[in-house]
Amino acid sequence: MGVMMNLPGPKARAIVKRDQDVISPSYPRDYPFVMDHGKGTEVWDVDGNRFLDFAAGIAVVSTGHSHPRVVKAIQEQAEKFIHISSDFYHTKWVELGEKINQIAPFMDNAISFMTNSGAESVEAAIKLARHYTQATEFIGFFGGFHGRTMGAVSFTASKALYHRDFYPMMNGVVHVPYPDPYRPILQSNPGEDYGVTVVRYIEEQVLDRLLPVKNVAGILLEPIQGEGGYVVPTPGFFPALRELCDRHNILLIADEVQSGMGRTGKWWAIEHFGVEPDIVCSAKGIASGMPLGVMFAREHIFNWQRGAHGNTYGGNPLACAAALATIELIEEEYLQNASLMGEYMMGILRQIQARHPVIGQVRGKGLMIGVEFVKDLYTKEPAAKLRDQVVHHAYLRGLI
Ligand SMILES: Cc1ncc(COP(=O)(O)O)c(C=O)c1O
Hints:
By secondary structure, the protein is of the alpha/beta class. The chain has helices at about 10-20, 55-60, 70-80, 90-105, 120-135, 150-155, 195-210, 235-250, 315-355, 385-395, and strands at about 35-40, 40-45, 50, 110-115, 135-140, 175, 215-220, 250-255, 280, 295-300, 360-365, 370-375.
């Protein structure tokens, strides 16, 4: 057990107080950590306390905090130019598109649309899917998190709070259960993979009874759910889902905002399941913390015309420079690191689980790992209070 710190310190307390006067209270702050600086996996608060950042800036600093090569790339670019707008061209933007094409999780050429966030990547995917298919409807998943702008939040179904007070949502999203093998809510046939059960439910209940298949543009989901509880689908799920999409000409849209960019030990989490998506949404880890998202898709899907979609900051030079350095570092080192460290971490967590019956499950891929606390191993009743206490005590001992 590490030494307990007396947190927050006086400087942090003062900043939190000033923040409350001027910053939106909607931000979900879990604890009063006020950052001063960071280096690699470590961060320091304004009172000089040191922490290990297990959250990696909420799945963003894929190369650690302020990696020297990322910092240098941003500095060099800033001295040349910071902005020109997406109405023009520049080299780093094209280079990033070429890189995305190399690492895209499908065989076709990849075309990229650059955004400023995860939610904006999801918005772009929704529009591209509607444009390409000329269909309007979508299937999303319970537990999914896709952002908070009006289109993206219509898919988000991890907490009712995200919808409450904001109706009407975007039209055209039907939610179905995520293939969570730990907490299944559908009845499987004897011997059936639970993911296959979910796909059968989509076919027999949703498509046969509710949504005419010709009206469905796409199925949008996280290949591994993030905010919904780090849920890894069963092996049978994605092959069955891909087959269903192929049979009905439905686009498979992977929201890899949290699970992508090497986090799981592969560039994209969907690569663990042996299928290729049609459209991918990325952000978070792609530029080590510079605000950048990319929505990319198979070339033939990008058949929209000039002016159909755009943004001012798309392909921002600083963000592209950071992304290029980030991708190089992930290629050279961090992809393998996520696999190795993920296995190491999972092994240790499983040892802890063996000693503590309050841990219902340890699951994940690479460094995308979830630990589920339960009151009872048999009923699996969530132990939310205990979880919060564990998180808080970790913080007091210097672990975010
Ligand atoms: C899977 C997923 N999609 C989309 C988003 C939204 O990204 P942003 O907060 O950058 O809009 C998130 C953010 O946590 C996410 O985890």
